[in-house]
Amino acid sequence: MSDSPLPPCGLYVTRAPIGSVPAGRLVYFHDHGDPGPGVYLPTRWVANKARFDAPGTLLPSREHAVHLEPLPHEGFYRVADPFFCCEKRCRRFESDLLVQLGYDGAGTPILFVPEMADGAIGVPDRGTKIDRDRIAHLAPLRVQVASPPRDRTFH
């Protein structure tokens, strides 16, 4: 591979095929894998977040990284200003609404709207697809993450 710069590790959608991964797929790019940088397809979703497992697909060359379009992180956001999901105006999201951003296998953004019942917040497993440019109306939130148990390993 040449010395072309690589993007940071994270979520992307492929703009063109990369090895056996077709264009238009949600992938996780890992820039320091063994034996080299590669992309990983989602294998499942847990709590509306994609999970990626080996094996991945090595980048044929560093130049193939230009075919990766970065996506904002999955997680919780606040609606910064009101917007509709798409040109058809199917669903309006109001200011300051708490939402969870996730993606489908094609990298299409999906907003899940948490609901409160009996003093607890729950997040549904069904959401509303939005046009990618609508993500600009969201502001990321910081959410406290529970510490994992010490006897459990994470990959």
Report what the structure shows.
This protein is mostly beta strands and 155 residues long. It has strands spanning 10-14, 26-30, 38-40, 42-46, 49-52, 57-58, 68-70, 75-79, 83-84, 92-93, 98-103, 109-112, 115-117, 120-122, 128-129, 138-140. The protein is globular, with a radius of gyration of 17 Å. The model has no long low-confidence stretch (mean pLDDT 90).
Quickly describe the structure:
The chain has strands at residues 10-14, 26-30, 38-40, 42-46, 49-52, 57-58, 68-70, 75-79, 83-84, 92-93, 98-103, 109-112, 115-117, 120-122, 128-129, 138-140. It has 155 residues and is mostly beta strands. A hairpin with a 5-residue loop joins strand 11 and strand 12 (109-112).
What's the topology here?
Elements: E1 10-14, E2 26-30, E3 38-40, E4 42-46, E5 49-52, E6 57-58, E7 68-70, E8 75-79, E9 83-84, E10 92-93, E11 98-103, E12 109-112, E13 115-117, E14 120-122, E15 128-129, E16 138-140
Antiparallel strand pairs: 1-2, 1-7, 2-3, 3-6, 4-5, 8-11, 8-16, 9-10, 11-12, 12-15, 13-14
**Helix content range of the residues, please?**
under 10%
**What coarse outline follows from CA principal-axis ratios?**
globular
Number of helices: 0
Order of helices and strands: EEEEEEEEEEEEEEEE
Give the terminus-to-terminus CA distance. Answer: 27 Å
Runs with pLDDT <50, length 5+? none
**Protein structure class:** mainly beta
* Residue-averaged pLDDT: 90
Strand order, largest beta sheet: 6-3-2-1-7
Largest sheet: 5 strands, antiparallel
Strand content: 35-45%
Radius of gyration: 17 Å
- Tally of extended strands? 16
